[in-house]
Amino acid sequence: MISFQIKSLGSFMHKLLSSDCFDSFLLAEATLTTAVSFRIDGHQNKEFYTTEEWEDSSIRPYDFVTWKTMRPLFYDLVKGKRTPVNFKFVLHLMPEYVAPTLAKGDTTVTAGDIRALALNIKYDGSALTIVTGTAMNTFLMDKSPDQIWDNAMRRFLTKKEIDFEEI
Does a structural domain hold residue 166? Predict the structure, then answer.
């Protein structure tokens, strides 16, 4: 787990809400406070779908909704002259990207061992931070996935030209 402080809020928010920069992630949860507060659970609701749709992986390939589909909603909620009071987004890397991410490091841990490679994006009214996290399906002594994920996020932020400082 590592924390990054984002140096340019405006530039980061543009990349988060107006570009495909984070479209390889799923939205696990979100809270956003503007004039009112919003709380979103990113789990897809079984009751919304027919049985056939729920079981069709081409219609509902993930347990969580994609960031790409939710991004316009959040853009609409925060656009305007006033900055949100605060927000927190918990994003999970899409499962198909976990194995390639692990392959960039030295580990015996497999994608099947990992429940989520996560980002916690938090704005407290003055500073925006991103904290990495790794959730396993079972307890493992091997912490190499944490280091691999931290390094992957350093590369990701650099490649996407997101100015950050480790804190």
Answer: no
